[in-house]
Amino acid sequence: xxxxxxGVTTVSAVGVADVRVVPNPxxxxxxxxxxxxxxxxxxVTLSITNMLGQNVYSNKVMVHNGNIDEQIQLKNTLxxxxxxxxxxxxxxxxxxxxxxxx
Length: 102
Prior knowledge:
Elements: E1 18-22, E2 29-35, E3 42-50, E4 55-63, E5 67-73, E6 81-89, E7 92-100
Antiparallel strand pairs: 1-2, 2-5, 3-4, 3-6, 6-7
């Protein structure tokens, strides 16, 4: 009989690593900040949908050295409530929930 150790190994983060929407809640003006977990320059797609699935914003931005710092200003005609920010970087995809309170 042999006895070995067991445990859980750490899984390194891949793709969209540490990105945040600040401030949240906001009045339609906010920043998308953080690191994508790599040091590459690449184009990412940001799109925002309301809870009905309607697209209210879409833009492509360049990320430099894996860091994103994009300011977004939405129309002040949007209703108060929850919205979804979809960030696509290559094959990676992440969804952020945020609230608009005007």
